[in-house]
């Protein structure tokens, strides 16, 4: 087998379909976010651009309090954790962070992983492998990390249509009542920005005796009085068995976690290879996460400022006649519907206008629903919003699809 040729042909297919991913060389500048320095090539001079697609939703990745906590932790404890949690990686800050995350979510315990992806993969994989005769009910739009966990468990999985409670009911009612049922879903779906009918799903879980596993990765820090997510906002925390979150988005760092009963967390801790056999997060990251959590807990004004900028951008795009997908979250998808055009718009925005928003293509979203996913933050000021909308309108009229031909759903 000529592997080199095979790989080159497969990559060629991606290029022809406009789906080949090119990573922009961006240097984030602490204190200047959302401005970053972009280089067209490693030797090219740096140019200031505005980043519109970061998951550092609230700008905490540059918050001086977070940075100071991280510096102090490096001075105190050095760089790495020194081993897995079992060997020597359970640092005091990590013990405290888990207590604080648990209390934030109104749960007995929490367990930190090296990323949100690993948290989902390890927790769902372990529940699936270790619980007796389990069956998963998984929302069709669930993130790749949840799918990976479910697949790794090699257990039966029924996929319900996205946010379709009636379909979920139908599937649950076809299932043997004696089986262990796990409903896995997200609160805020990151690509469409729509929000799950969490209460109705909890009702079904109660009716059919299912475990609820809720991924709040795009909601932690963002919703609820104390920022603990959609379950907090809707008063449903006590009806969710496992809340999964990340330290990588609103927290501005990296890492993931689950929160739940002490027994469930101990169960995952004791059986999950993705938790047991990997080095713990470095102390500086954990110290930074504790500081982020404190800011998020008290971050009502920050959330208000953020939501105001989201509303403002949506309104401006709407007035400019651009096709945004409506939702009730902070994610603003501008629908393009073609991979090559989406990439061309993104390139032109960056090169000519200094705005960076990466194209979102298949397999992240379905073919024909390619888009630009905008995530304005509280530090994107009104002038930046205005400049982006003018630039996008100009680029759209040069390269974008004809708005008249686009499905009604997409047109604001
Ligand atoms: N869950 C969802 C819904 C996500 O969108 C992501 C990443 O974007 C993850 C989990 C993984 O989180 P992390 O980036 O912390 O690995």
Description of the molecule:
The protein is built from 15 helices and 14 strands. The protein is an alpha/beta fold. The strands form three sheets. Strands 4-10-9-8-7-5-6 form a seven-stranded mixed beta sheet, with helices on both faces. The protein has a four-stranded mixed beta sheet with strand order 1-2-3-12. Strand 1 (25-28) and strand 2 (35-39) form a beta hairpin. Helix 4 runs parallel beside helix 12, helix 5 packs parallel to helix 6 (144-153) and helix 13 packs parallel to helix 15. The structure holds pyridoxal-5'-phosphate. The site of pyridoxal-5'-phosphate has 13 residues, from helix 5.
Topology:
Elements: H1 3-16, E1 25-28, E2 35-39, E3 47-51, H2 64-77, H3 85-89, H4 92-104, E4 109-113, H5 116-130, E5 134-139, H6 144-153, E6 156-160, H7 165-173, E7 180-186, H8 198-208, E8 210-215, H9 230-233, E9 242-246, E10 256-260, H10 262-271, H11 273-276, H12 283-297, H13 300-319, E11 332-335, H14 339-353, E12 355-356, E13 359-360, E14 371-374, H15 382-399
Parallel strand pairs: 3-12, 5-6, 5-7, 7-8, 8-9
Antiparallel strand pairs: 1-2, 2-3, 4-10, 9-10, 11-14, 13-14
Helix pairs in contact: 2-12, 4-12, 5-6, 7-8, 13-15, 14-15
Bound molecules: pyridoxal-5'-phosphate.
The chain-level mean pLDDT equals 95
Total count of strands: 14
Task: Please give the alpha-carbon distance between the first and last residues.
Answer: 51 Å
Instruction: Figure out the total of helices.
Output: 15
Overall spatial form: globular
Q: Radius of gyration, rounded?
A: 22 Å
